[in-house]
Write a structure and sequence with these properties.
Elements lengths: L1 E4 L2 E4 L10 E5 L40 H8 L16 H6 E3 L9 H7 L4 H19 L1 H10 L1 E5 L2 H8 L3 H4 L4 H21 L4 E5 L8 H7 L8 H24 L6 E5 L2 H9 L8 E5 L27 E3 L7 H15 L5
Parallel strand pairs: 3-4, 3-5, 5-6, 6-7, 8-9
Antiparallel strand pairs: 1-2
Length: 345
């Protein structure tokens, strides 16, 4: 399915199919720098972030590219997917895709509000603004084609689990794991219906990773052996079951021609990397490369972390206490897209 030419990967699309653009919504996994100018601690626009990225730190929460870039490249849309709020973004960039994602956001609006970042509904408002700019340039008909032929990726939810539910008492005092995953599925459902209402037809929804197994969560909830924080994984699996069921339900409601709604499982692919790192060419799977690798992420992975950081991030599944390395992202993204490619058409 993949044609590899050196490092360039391009998917072979089904006959006569084209992808006009890629638009991405979500959190730090797919945020290329929308948070850079916000008053938030959820940022990655300083070293050692971006140390393996051409041009250095950009606000991407990794040592290199993030999944939104890799997906854009795999689909042959562009090499890098820019942040919509990047001051350098040109009108031309909007035609073939941008990311509206904001690190620390979640389906639960409380996640973004607590971190002072862009909520999922505000990301939709930015997309509306983007559509208006495209319409002003090329007219309604051409814009409608761009919007309907584009691929949409929605990737969020981890912060709802690790920060909003397990760190803050407010939700936990009112909702058990099942009730909270129901609450969030309601927000996710509304988001997808609103996105569809704006003309999106090919939507891939990423599930949650085994968030309890990322380095910082092992440190916080895994006891003295730093095992996976099982309660978080339990909520992530409950979430995934609800999100997957939600997609099935929406398929019966959102039925305009060309509509494709796909649930993309990341839980088991990432768990496989963590449990069998050697199989994928990694040496370390339970700590991140940045600093001590036990907890640092965002502003805590900063220039003072450089002396302690690992020399080669490609040996690590995780770049920091929360986010995978570029190499892990490439493996995961290719695996998931390869598995689900035909479902988008």
């Amino acid at each position: 399915m993949f044609c590899h030419d050196g490092n360039e990967a391009a998917l072979v699309l089904p006959k006569n199919e084209t992808i006009s653009a890629l638009y991405v919504f979500g959190d730090s996994i797919v945020d290329p720098g929308n948070n850079n100018n916000l008053a938030t601690i959820a940022k990655g626009n300083f070293l050692p972030y971006g140390r393996d990225f051409k041009g250095g730190p950009t606000g991407r929460f990794s040592n290199g590219k993030v999944p939104s870039d890799i997906i854009a490249e795999e689909f042959g849309v562009k090499d890098l997917l820019p942040a919509y709020l990047d001051p350098k973004v040109q009108l031309q960039d909007l035609f073939n895709g941008v990311s509206f994602a904001s690190g620390a956001a979640g389906y639960d609006p409380l996640s973004a509000e607590t971190a002072n970042v862009i909520t999922m509904s505000e990301q939709l408002e930015l997309f509306k603004e983007c559509i208006k700019k495209i319409e002003a340039a090329v007219g309604e008909e051409r814009t409608a084609t761009i919007v309907s032929k584009a691929i949409y990726i929605v990737c969020t939810g981890s912060n709802d689990v690790s920060n909003t539910y397990f760190l803050l008492p407010i939700r936990r005092s009112h909702y058990d794991i099942n009730a909270y995953s129901d609450l969030v599925a309601g927000y996710a459902s509304q988001f997808l219906q609103d996105l569809y209402g704006l003309g999106a037809r090919r939507i891939g929804l990423l599930g949650l990773p085994p968030i309890g197994c990322v380095p910082s969560q092992r440190t916080l909830g895994g006891g003295k052996n730093r095992d996976c924080y099982e309660a978080e994984n339990q909520l992530a699996t409950a979430y995934n079951a609800k999100l997957s069921g939600l997609i099935d339900n929406l398929k019966t409601v959102l039925t305009l021609p060309g509509t494709k709604l796909i649930f993309l499982d990341i839980y088991y692919p990432l768990l496989s990397l963590i449990q069998n790192p050697g199989k994928y060419g990694f040496e370390v799977a339970t700590v991140g490369c940045c600093g001590t690798g036990l907890i640092e992420a965002s502003i805590f992975c900063n220039p003072t972390s450089i002396p302690l950081s690992c020399p080669d991030a490609s040996k690590y599944v995780f770049w920091d206490g929360y986010h995978p390395s570029e190499k892990a992202y490439k493996i995961l993204t290719s695996t998931i897209i390869n598995l689900h490619l035909k479902e988008f058409f």
